[in-house]
């Protein structure tokens, strides 16, 4: 086969849960250009039976290693519990099989660093991560605007993302969910990784974090179900991140303040961009006492100070995962630049685990000179206390 359109990447799905099942359905229906369903692997006999029923003719394996050795797949996606992402990715790349890891890249930075180093040593094999929100036009447009420098330097940003309401039955459906040994955390490792990635993708990687977390606050779980964190981006720029799983109403509001403007995103759909006529400090320095009086009396024409643009975006739900899968296939086939290189996954993992470590120790955590071994020791202490899962190394 010489033509690009005649070639496909045979994807192996490891873990046929909700996410893996969705990917299998998309591939079976031919909705992902350049990609086909190569095989399915799952340790659960019921899931294997389901795979055989829903996808006749597709090879089904009871463990991922057998799939990797089968010759049935060119690439894999890791739709499995978070602790396994790095292990499976390393195994796949070691056999020359391209890997798309699900978010988060891992639970603790040591395992993600090992995965990244292994992938870097095998550049001929594609390593990507499923940061599908990076395909959302809301955020791709904002990324371009911020990177253009039009709004100047970042001053402050805050993201309140509490649209993750989960009733108790959600946690009770699986013994590993919201445990330290089975999942490695709560809302920070399950629901919020996309926002953590987008936040640092847009604003830059934070250098320090101080956080207050509530563990089992409104749910009968061991891990965090509410988070309030303050971060330091350096050069005076700061940020606040708040998330939870106990707000049935929910809020999704991102604010980013710059020297020459402001961005507000509501519900990941409505965007308000305010552009100052000059940078804020120049406007301040140029105001006389008389101007201040007029300002306080509401007599200043605000168009002299700023203009406002509003944009409404259609929901992209259902298209984002397809976009990442197609991009992954295009990179394998033709070298198309990746939407998200797998190595970038460590930024969100470091930020999430830094928040947890800050809450456990009551101190600000340096994210540049990150205390990875201390975090792992604290995590293992909690895993041991649970008594259900093995500790990590």
> Helix segment count?
13
The structure class reads alpha/beta
Please list the strands of the largest sheet in the order they lie side by side: 14-13-12-11-7-10-9-8-15
- Name of the CATH first level of the largest domain: Alpha Beta
* Shape, per Cα inertia axes: globular
Compute the separation of the termini in Å.
Answer: 45 Å
Order of helices and strands: EHEHEHEHEHEHEHHEEEEEEHHEHHEH
Largest sheet: 9 strands, mixed
Number of strands: 15
CATH architecture of the largest domain: 2-Layer Sandwich
Average pLDDT over all residues: 95
What percentage of amino acids are in beta strands?
A: 15-25%
What integer value in Å does the Rg equal?
Answer: 23 Å
Q: Percent of residues in helical segments?
A: 25-40%
- Poorly predicted runs are none
- CATH level-four homologous superfamily name of the largest domain: Dihydrodipicolinate Reductase, domain 2
Whole-number tally of structural domains: 2
């Amino acid at each position: 086969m010489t033509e690009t359109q005649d070639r496909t990447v045979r994807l192996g799905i490891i873990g046929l849960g909700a996410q893996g099942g969705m990917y299998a359905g998309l591939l079976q229906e031919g909705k992902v250009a350049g990609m086909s369903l190569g095989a399915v692997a799952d340790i659960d006999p019921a899931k294997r039976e389901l795979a055989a029923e829903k996808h006749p003719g597709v090879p089904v394996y009871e463990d991922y290693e057998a799939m990797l050795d089968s010759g049935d797949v060119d690439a894999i996606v890791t739709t499995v519990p978070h602790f396994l992402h790095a292990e499976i990715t390393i195994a796949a790349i070691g056999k020359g099989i391209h890997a798309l890891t699900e978010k988060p890249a891992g639970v603790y930075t040591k395992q993600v660093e090992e995965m990244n180093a292994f992938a870097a040593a095998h550049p001929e094999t594609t390593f990507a991560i499923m940061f599908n929100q990076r395909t959302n036009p809301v955020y791709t447009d904002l990324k371009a605007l911020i990177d253009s420098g039009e709004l100047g330097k970042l001053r402050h940003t805050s993201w309140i993302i509490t649209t993750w309401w989960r009733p108790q039955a959600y946690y009770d459906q699986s013994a590993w969910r919201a445990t330290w040994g089975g999942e490695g955390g709560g809302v920070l490792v399950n629901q919020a990784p996309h926002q953590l990635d987008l936040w640092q993708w847009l604003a830059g990687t934070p250098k320090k974090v101080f956080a207050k977390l509530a563990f089992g606050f409104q749910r009968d779980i061991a891990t965090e179900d509410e988070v309030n964190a303050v971060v330091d981006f350096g050069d005076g720029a700061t940020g606040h991140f708040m998330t939870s799983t106990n707000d049935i109403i929910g809020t999704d509001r991102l604010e980013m303040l710059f020297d020459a403007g402001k961005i507000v995103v509501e519900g990941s759909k409505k965007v308000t961009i305010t552009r100052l006529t000059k940078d804020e400090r120049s406007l301040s320095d140029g105001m006389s006492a008389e101007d201040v009086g007029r300002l306080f009396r509401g007599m200043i024409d605000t168009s002299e100070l700023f203009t406002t643009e509003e944009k409404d975006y259609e929901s992209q739900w259902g298209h984002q995962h397809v976009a990442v899968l197609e991009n992954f296939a295009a990179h394998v086939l033709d070298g198309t630049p990746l939407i998200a290189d797998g190595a970038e996954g460590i930024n969100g993992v470091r930020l999430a685990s830094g928040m947890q470590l800050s809450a456990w120790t009551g101190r600000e955590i340096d994210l540049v000179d990150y205390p990875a071994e201390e975090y792992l020791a604290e995590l293992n202490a909690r895993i041991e206390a649970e008594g259900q899962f093995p500790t990590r190394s």
